[in-house]
From TrEMBL:
This is Oligosaccharide repeat unit polymerase. It comes from Escherichia coli. It comes from the Bacteria. The chain crosses the membrane at residues 25-46, 66-84, 105-125, 145-165, 172-205, 217-238, 297-317, 323-343, 382-398. The keyword Membrane applies. Residues 283-386 form the DUF6418 domain. Keywords: Membrane, Transmembrane, Transmembrane helix.
Amino acid sequence: MVANYFAVGAIVILLFEKLLGDKRVFYLSFFFIYGLFGQILSLVVIEKGWYLIELGGIRTYTSYALIYLCITSFVFINLTCYIIKFSIYKIIEQDFFLNLRANKFLYMLPVVYLILIYLPVFYYGPALTVTGGNRILYREVIHPFFAYLMQIRALIFPLAGLFLFNKNKHYAYLYIALAIVWNLLIGEKASGIIVTVYFIFLPYVLINYSRISNIRLLSVLIIGVLAIIFSIVANYVFIEGNQAVFILDRISMQGQLWWYYFNEIVSQNTPTHAFMDEFIADETGLIGLMKFSMPTYLYDSYMSAGYILTSGFPAIFVFYFGAWWLFPTMLCSLAYIFPVYFLTKSLYKGEILSFLISNRIFASLITLTAEGSIGTFLDYKLFIYIFILLFLQYMPRVKV
């Protein structure tokens, strides 16, 4: 998926550079749809249409899923561009949030966060690895506090990078290099790189597109794809101890085990308490989930290594707190106006912090609406991000 973000983004920029006047608005609106095209490539090349249950209940043929994704992508790219360019930016002119002053001690948040985020690695052992909140690979059941920390790292890492870029670029490059090395050592792969590097440079590319040549940008994207491929192979072969033959199977399974099974349960109208009873007692439910969702030889390889694989944040909170916390997500469709407003204001004024967080909120909303994924629906990180966005308005503006 991450490689598709890079590849599709490069192709789009090259194709449309000469055709559009306000290219920043187009890039902004189109960026959030890249994941849908990445899903198409994933379905065709890797998953062979096995997990179409997550695409709004489309279960039978890959071709139907492709048509569904293409239509929703086309609709939402135009709708998004229209909202940003003609509606929200002109209607809402209040600068209350943007004018709030900052407290500089908040720049210490990345330091505190980096300490907290790696505590479970030393506490639970090197088997713990988290990839972008999509899945957790561990030998013991971990506390949900650590799962929450992992979810906000996509905000803190870019914040740390922006702070270092503002102070000394050499320190920033050193920070990125060390973060990537550390991610590899603890078992991180693609998302460890994406949250550390990609979201640091994305706002700069969007805002300063006129000063960046396409050749140079394409070169950076190619290097990024190669780095991600290398990290995946290195992790599977040298860290997890699997042979290369397992790589495609691992990719096809990651981030999809939990929701594939959960959607099946929901489609059968199984009562919530029955679903909870199966998984909340101990880790045997997770083992059953793995056995149900992956090929036998892959399941056996994990069992022999002592690993348990599951989707991360939503799954763990269901285990610990039940389904009562899911109701606020029903209001998420009404929250479109909020991230669109901050996306537009931050893009035109060059305020990167607001852009980074609004980017994540809006991308989640688009994925929810376009794919109809119940996994996204149950993922109330959207509201956590909204609160963090309000909180970060007190921080100093980092301009480019």
